[in-house]
Design goal:
It is a single chain. With 209 residues, the protein is of the alpha/beta class. It has a single domain, classed as Rossmann fold. Helices cover 38% and strands 20% of the residues. The two termini are 16 Å apart. The protein binds guanosine-5'-triphosphate and magnesium ion (MG). The site of magnesium ion has 6 residues, from helix 2. This is Probable GTP-binding protein EngB. Necessary for normal cell division and for the maintenance of normal septation.
Length: 209
């Protein structure tokens, strides 16, 4: 495990480059290498977590305004490329205009269900809020599509360790009832770096599977 953490750390410390922004599936790069996607409700911390993983602050654009990420943003990891990271728009952002929400949902669902090289989806959940109905909807869709995913709690720095432990146990119990979900969940903080080395190792392992 220590070896995996170090291998993953080195890989993420090397070249990571923004490749392109795809507003529709047709703009995605050729499916010639593994992809790992960051999914989750708007503002859950997808872009921040991608930045924390790669140790690069402004790589993916993060902001307190929900709906910051509007397209599938693709990042190449390694030179030569080893895999790609995909920062997705958020789902369940009720305040956005209806047609925009519908367009994002279609883009997210079409990508998650149909991308052949998608090796794992990281389903991000705010540690303060736990699983919401819209998260369960995405998880059930991934189960049906037989797409492997792992639940990752974000913003762990915002709650007490005792509360975090309770939420982890609750979410893990539910994850175990979903067939395509990885049985273990991870708690992370893009702010303090907690759980980041472990998530790097999990991503590298999934990309190579
Ligand atoms: N305290 C704390 N704040 C965080 C953490 N991760 C993200 N945030 C904050 O949460 C807000 C949203 O973060 P983003 O990374 O933009 O979230 P997102 O999921 O990409 O949002 P959309 O692209 O709009 O769907 C920003 O203000 C971040 O600074 C974390 O681990 N700890
Ligand atoms: Mg974002």
């Amino acid at each position: 495990m220590a070896w995996d953490l170090e291998t993953a750390r080195r890989l993420f410390a090397g070249p990571v480059e923004f490749r392109l922004s795809a507003p529709e599936l047709e703009f995605l790069p050729a499916p010639d290498v593994s992809e790992i996607a960051f999914a989750g409700r708007s503002n859950v911390g997808k872009s921040s977590l991608l930045n924390a993983l790669t140790g690069r602050q402004g790589l993916a654009r993060a902001s307190n305004t929900p709906g910051r990420t509007q397209e599938l943003n693709i990042f190449d990891v390694g030179e030569p490329r080893v895999f790609r990271l995909v920062d997705m728009p958020g789902y369940g952002y009720a305040e956005a205009p209806k047609d925009l929400v519908a367009r994002w949902k279609r883009l997210i669902f079409d990508y998650l269900r149909g991308r052949v090289v998608l090796k794992r989806v990281l389903v991000l959940i705010d540690a303060r809020h736990g699983l919401k109905p819209v998260d369960r909807e995405i998880m059930t869709m991934l189960d049906k599509a037989a797409v492997s995913y792992q639940v990752v709690l974000t913003k762990a720095d915002k709650i007490k360790p005792s509360e975090l432990a309770t939420t982890m146990a609750k979410v893990e119990a539910i994850a175990r009832t979903h067939v395509a979900a990885y049985p273990e969940i991870l708690a992370t903080s893009a702010e303090t770096g907690a759980g980041i080395p472990e998530l790097r190792a999990a991503v590298v392992l999934a990309a190579k599977s």
